[in-house]
Fold this sequence. Notes:
Elements lengths: L12 H27 L11 H25 L13 H24 L15 H14 L18 H13 L3 H28 L2 H18 L4 H8 L1 H11 L4 H14 L4 H21 L17 H31 L28 H15 L4 H22 L13 H27 L9 H26 L1 H9 L19 H12 L3 H4 L2 E3 L2 H6 L19 H11 L5 H15 L6 E5 L12 E9 L7 E9 L7 E6 L2 E6 L1
Helix pairs in contact: 1-3, 1-6, 2-3, 2-7, 2-16, 3-6, 3-7, 4-5, 4-6, 5-6, 6-7, 6-8, 7-15, 7-16, 9-10, 9-11, 9-14, 10-12, 11-12, 11-14, 13-15, 14-15
Amino acid sequence: xxxxxxxxxxxxxxxxxxxxxxxxxxxxxxxxxxxxxxxxxxxxxxxxxxxxxxxxxxxxxxxxxxxxxxxxxxxxxxxxxxxxxxxxxxxxxxxxxxxxxxxxxxxxxxxxxxxxxxxxxxxxxxxxxxxxxxxxxxxxxxxxxxxxxxxxxxxxxxxxxxxxxxxxxxxxxxxxxxxxxxxxxxxxxxxxxxxxxxxxxxxxxxxxxxxxxxxxxxxxxxxxxxxxxxxxxxxxxxxxxxxxxxxxxxxxxxxxxxxxxxxxxxxxxxxxxxxxxxxxxxxxxxxxxxxxxxxxxxxxxxxxxxxxxxxxxxxxxxxxxxxxxxxxxxxxxxxxxxxxxxxxxxxxxxxxxxxxxxxxxxxxxxxxxxxxxxxxxxxxxxxxxxxxxxxxxxxxxxxxxxxxxxxxxxxxxxxxxxxxxxxxxxxxxxxxxxxxxxxxxxxxxxxxxxxxxxxxxxxxxxxxxxxxxxxxxxxxxxxxxxxxxxxxxxxxxxxxxxxxxxxxxxxxxxxxxxxxxxxxxxxxxxxxxxxxxxxxxxxxxxxxxxxxxxxxxxxxxxxxxxxxxxxxxxxxxxxxxxxxxxxxxxxxxxxxxxxxxxxxxxxxxxxxxxxxxxxxxxxxxxxxxxxxxxxxxxxxxxxxxxxxxxxxxxxxxxxxxxxxxxx
Length: 663
């Protein structure tokens, strides 16, 4: 790739690692500091006022404006003492800091400001955010290899982001649920900042690297910020594709970087890792095919090129990344091979309407659409370019996966193709930025040599920059409005302290602290470590780190937990009226299946009727997988006989809940 500006970074692995660590750490510290300040302000709720929206818009525009001024200065520095164009040491240092922090500034502006008056993250505690919060709460209380729901079972869901978030929560002194928002902001900002020196190394240009990192960060914030660990992996996919092209051609540094990326990402979000891995395989096959029949120079007789060399390097990268991935996945695979388990494909049982559509960002009227369209033109005109081929392989794999996901329901599953919209967009946006830089440096000059002279080059850069800044600003300003539903849920859902961000009265979550106190009183102060709870109250298990007898949903349930078998056991228990028979049935189920029996049941119901009469049942909602329907989950109420708890259980009425604690 041609260098676009005289800002080539120093060579060597250690300087690169130093810049990566510096950018990530600085962005994390700045973002955390900004969160602390915003969390202590008294801004109005996003759902009730436009104040935070206005602050978000102003913040995003200022970040982009400052970045433009710095990048223009880096592209066209003033005259130095030796007569050459160069920036002074102070200007260079300021430029580096601004380039590193610009993506983090966007995260703070478009997410931090709108969420300033609530302690919850996008989506609140609703739908999928319930299980994500549950996992982070568990990793805060019990960091390690354990499952988010079941006791003494290694996790099935990739844990790296949640484990790191749990450690973060302990360091800053927050409960797991309360750490979700700051950890999401910090991890997104740090990852985006890390990509600046990575892209600087790939392109040989700090300003170009900053533009790519900022543009892709903006796309992530618009498309899929509610799942931060998936967004983090997706941010690195375009760089991984280019590294793959260099790795299979023999670059050891690229092989190392690609191996680390694939290994770590497999412990965060395996779907995107799978796309990146398949892209690497396709690139290796393309390179091997292109090399057939060529000759190696410098060897007598011109020895034939060995097309297996890219494939050998592919195997090396694959084995290395698998070794890293097994650090997290190993315990789960070992248990899967040595014990009974349930269905393993439930996580793929989801096909929303968006999963039936093909993502075409190049037809959208936005900066992302413009960059995507430019990328397509660039790919057609420069298809022999190695960078183009790498990004094109990523697009081919992504679109192939999406199409396969549309066909997969015929086999009773899906491939979650709707999640691949983000990688598709990032490949296109990255290519669009690279194409624009090429156009700035050579294309316009070749087309209009009389107009684009050496003296007019800054004007060309300024023109392209102004257009890009205005388009990017319009896109950034639209992010909070695009995420309005998710932001509103962060304000209307009740948090773990029984407060709502919009200050309106809370829901039944207000009783959960009393439930927790009652369990601790009867089971001891360490009850959260070993007391198994059976409940369908998603917020309770998300806010309090109790192991549960049954997971929230089959789609995120650990196959080792045998979700369907547990549902069958629960339904059997609801038919029992005799208290001794219920206890015996629970003990037999634990003995026969090897799982921990419920110590506590938290159910909906009343111990006494309004007229003093006894209530004959307590309600529990069983979660069932009803794929291919959309929605794909059904909650079916079943009734426990109240008489079954007349002996061997301590019953308490806490708000609308009946708490049954085994004696």
